[in-house]
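Interim report, section 4.2 (structural modelling).
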Amino acid sequence: MDLIQTIFWSFVALIPVTLAQSLILAFVVLGIMIPFRTLNFPDLTSEGAFPLGGCVCGVLLAAGASPLTAIAIAIIAGFLAGCCTAFIHLRFRIHTLLAGILMMTMLYSINLRIMGKSNLSVFGAPTVFDWAPFVQPGFPASKIIIAGVIGAVVFILLNMFFKTEKGTAIRAVGANPDMAEAQGINVWVATIGGVGLASAFSATGGALMVQSQGFADVNMGLGILINGLAALMIGEAIVGKQTVLRQLAAPFVGAVVYYQLVSFCLAAGMPPPDLKLATGLFVLAMLALPSLKRSRGPAPARETVRE
Amino acid sequence: MLEIRSARKVFYKGQPDEKVALDGLDLKLNTGEFGVVIGSNGAGKSSMLNAISGALVLDSGQIVINGDDVTEMPVHKRAMRLARVFQDPMKGTAASMTVAENMLLAELRSKKRSLRQGLNARRLADYRERLALLGLGLENRLDTRVELLSGGQRQSLSLIMAVGGEPELLLLDEHTAALDPRTADIVMQATVRAVDALKLTTLMVTHNMQHAVDFGHSVIMLDAGKLRLEITGDEKAKVTVPDLIGHFAVKTDRMLLAS
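Predicted structure of the assembly:
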């Protein structure tokens, strides 16, 4: 009984910190969801774009730039990285996954070049979290407010965008590229723009993370992809993905729930090194579920992606 | 008006399995004319449609639509001028999107896409009205995802989408071949109604000789990548199914001799 109480209270004590972290990482989950679900383009760039955003932001903060400028330039850097991945795929007909692996590998060197060393402390530099109203800077509440507000704005804007004429066209490219082309949609522009936008969100997550934790590390992206994928799967299991609204809500809901689950597992005494194995098994189970269900009853639509 | 000028396309050039798909094909289709294309498998029918739509890049020759040379235009640019219904109902629609969203994509085919909201009340009413013409009940399923529709319903939707923006040229690629006879009839009747009402310049590929006899202003027969036969005017009005099959038979005999 005592043990359960201890676990419970240590978990509860971690809730605000974890919530702040998950709202920041929700941008990465969004950056994974957009190519994967709306463009049917499984994109691995986020593993490199997340630290890219962090490194760019860190260097700029260390040079005395304002936190907003640092985020804006990190977003541009992320956008360009995503554009490169899509271009590699389209121009050289390289498989989407391989294009992503190439890009994230190359980004590792680029990130090191940008920072000049493997990690950089920006502790004490001004951050966007200092601007949170009513709360003391530095506490989780300020991060929850700022990251939550930015997330809400992005969510509303994206929900509007995907229902515009241009946004519908981008979704059509993911649903059926040949049909989209026959309906006069430029598949190249839509794919490059869409994957670029997604990586820009991953970079946003990296930049916010650096401002939140006070340092940038070239290895900060390690395993972010599998975490993000797990969060996306949870989000889709909870809110579904039938409509644009639900599909967009899934990354945010999923990130919040997933990181609380992780926090709970750690509080319950799971050794941290086992975390990646557990996450991997979870994602595997979620992806395998449709084919397990198929042995009973009619075949569901298989997961197909652009190659 | 559609003109194909000495179009040539060779697949696997210089290899043992070299295949001449289009061998200096010349074709002219007047504005408002409904041409029916027949020919055996491998005669070049699909290659011709792909060359017109831009999915196939010609080795030489030209494609001219209403006086403009579109030979160098990519598929999405040509889409401003032409619409196409494929044989496979899956190909012409976006399965994971709703009926209304598919209609919207088709409506915007020849327009500039803006950042305004796509589906509005005016558009939805318009789509409902146009889909009601089919008599399949699609007008009440605007929010249904297309993957939940039957093949016939999807193909009917493809047709309505294609004739929507009054394209300069309509390409029908065996668009009733994958459907059951009753549905094929519904789709065919809807096709003829739309083509007649809008006076669309149309090119329809079919293996159904009865369709070739019943519909269209002219019958165009392809053979080995060339125009073999063109039946127009009064002659077309009098042509019968055995006549058309006769032309196939001659070709088959020659093929036997050649092989």
